[in-house]
């Protein structure tokens, strides 16, 4: 992004990926399509950096919010359309719809978006010649196995070779990548050291850590809230239309938080305290989800809304602050690093939360259900049979007395509450790290000026660009 024109090709790649998924007849084709779309999606997330540079710096946070407008549609509408598509057998239209809008976006970029072809005055030849190819190879070669190891930790035992080998290999290669970036004397490094150490890390490193943690916290709510809806509020998911309604507060809350940032960010100023406050709200109310019971639905809806509103404010503000933490010439570096950390943190968090939840649920189910069933009159010899079907609902326990079924279901609900509490506490630990990072951020108010960094080449103001 810093040395080349913003490549429209990757936006087209994302469009093709969604077509592959939408037309899929096998799971293999779905996986391939998602891989292609994900590759192109790496460019799409750069919109949060490409659009704000066209606006005055004082509107940087507003530009980030606008750039993610389609995300708000996705988090609000997608849970509804996805469930209806699944229930009615028309799931593919969730991807055809995205492909259509992605295609329109590609056309818009093709005909309307003409940024400087050489943002830093570097020719294509020099850029391609001096790109950090070895660094890219080391990063991919380290990140992929490392993330695989984390994901497999939820499938295999922690000491299994499937977990240990990729984690060790990935970690070693990532350390090699870091050493190469620091000591390699590269002309255009992928991760310049000066970006991380500026102001002892307060300019960029602290806000990018907060960005990663904010994203990690989002995934805890995205795992716990659907579990609550299914287990406690919709009779095991039987009332799927009501579950769709209950999925809406989370998406609307994110949108609400983003709107609050847009309307009041410039008025409140004190940007680092805004970030700290919004992340604090997210962490506090997200952690309070651990107090769930089968009967406090209203309280949980309030907590999920407040937590996700804090997320909507904090996420986009942290992105804006990471942009302001580097010189404009390093905006692409900032965007690339921020995107990697944001999504890698999400992948790590998802694996951790799911593993913790599964292990905790198994632990507390084994602790609560047998004793409750025996107390309700079940012979100990039948406990094993009950445990094999208790998670499948009352329909799978017809051979047991109503008293035993009722006791087992109540005990299982208690086990779910305990498992959710444990995950909420794990997420709170991550949240505390994020809050510490927020407190280390510098205020960027002095950089929130009326200066516009880049003008499109197809406008009357193109001559104001230093490079073309």
UniProtKB/TrEMBL annotation:
InterPro entries to which the protein is assigned, alphabetical: MFS_Str1/Tri12-like, MFS_trans_sf
Keyword Membrane: yes
Keywords: Membrane, Transmembrane, Transmembrane helix, Transport
GO molecular function: transmembrane transporter activity
Pfam family, one: TRI12
Gene3D superfamilies: MFS general substrate transporter like domains (1.20.1250.20)
UniProt membrane topology term: Multi-pass membrane protein
Cellular component annotations (GO), alphabetically ordered: plasma membrane
TM stretches of this protein: 30-50, 62-81, 93-114, 134-155, 161-180, 200-220, 240-263, 275-293, 299-319, 419-441
Protein name: Major facilitator superfamily (MFS) profile domain-containing protein
Species whose genome carries this gene: Penicillium nordicum
């Amino acid at each position: 992004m810093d040395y080349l024109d913003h490549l429209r090709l990757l936006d087209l790649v994302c469009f093709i990926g969604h077509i592959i998924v939408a037309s899929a007849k096998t799971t293999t084709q779905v996986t391939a399509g998602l891989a292609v779309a994900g590759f192109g999606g790496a460019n799409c997330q750069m919109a949060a950096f490409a659009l704000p540079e066209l606006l005055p710096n004082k509107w940087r946070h507003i530009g980030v919010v606008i750039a993610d407008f389609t995300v708000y549609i996705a988090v609000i509408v997608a849970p509804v359309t996805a469930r209806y598509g699944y229930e009615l057998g028309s799931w593919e239209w969730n991807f055809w719809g995205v492909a259509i809008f992605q295609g329109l976006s590609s056309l818009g970029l093709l005909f309307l978006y003409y940024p400087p072809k050489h943002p830093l005055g570097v020719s294509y030849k020099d850029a391609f010649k001096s790109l950090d190819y070895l660094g890219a190879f080391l990063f991919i070669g380290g990140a992929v196995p490392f993330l695989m190891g984390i994901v497999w930790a939820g499938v295999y035992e922690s000491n299994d070779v499937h977990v240990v080998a990729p984690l060790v290999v990935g970690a070693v290669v990532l350390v090699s990548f870091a050493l190469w970036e620091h000591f390699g004397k590269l002309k255009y490094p992928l991760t310049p050291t000066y970006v991380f150490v500026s102001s002892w890390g307060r300019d960029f490193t602290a806000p990018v850590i907060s960005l990663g943690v904010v994203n990690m916290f989002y995934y805890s709510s995205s795992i716990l809230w659907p579990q609550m809806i299914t287990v406690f509020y919709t009779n095991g998911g039987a009332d799927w239309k009501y579950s769709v309604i209950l999925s809406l507060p989370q998406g609307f809350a994110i949108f609400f938080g983003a709107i609050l940032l847009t309307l009041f960010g410039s008025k409140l100023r004190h940007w680092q305290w805004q970030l700290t406050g919004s992340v604090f709200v997210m962490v506090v109310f997200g952690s309070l989800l651990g107090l769930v019971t089968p009967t406090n639905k209203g309280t949980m809806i309030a907590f999920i809304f407040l937590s996700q509103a804090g997320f909507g404010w904090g996420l986009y503000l942290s992105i804006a602050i990471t942009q302001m933490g580097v010189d404009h010439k390093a905006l692409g570096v900032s965007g690339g690093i921020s995107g990697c950390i944001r999504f890698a943190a999400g992948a790590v968090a998802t694996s951790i939360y799911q593993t913790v939840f599964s292990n905790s649920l198994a632990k507390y189910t084994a602790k609560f259900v047998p004793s409750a069933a025996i107390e309700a009159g079940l012979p100990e010899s039948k406990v094993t049979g009950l445990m094999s079907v208790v998670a499948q609902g009352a329909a799978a326990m017809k051979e047991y007395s109503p008293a035993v079924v009722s006791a087992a279901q109540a005990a299982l609900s208690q086990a779910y509450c305990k498992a959710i509490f444990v995950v909420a506490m794990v997420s709170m630990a991550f949240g505390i790290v994020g809050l510490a990072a927020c407190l280390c951020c510098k205020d960027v108010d002095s950089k929130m000026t009326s200066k516009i960094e880049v003008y499109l080449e197809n406008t009357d103001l193109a001559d104001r660009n230093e490079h073309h």
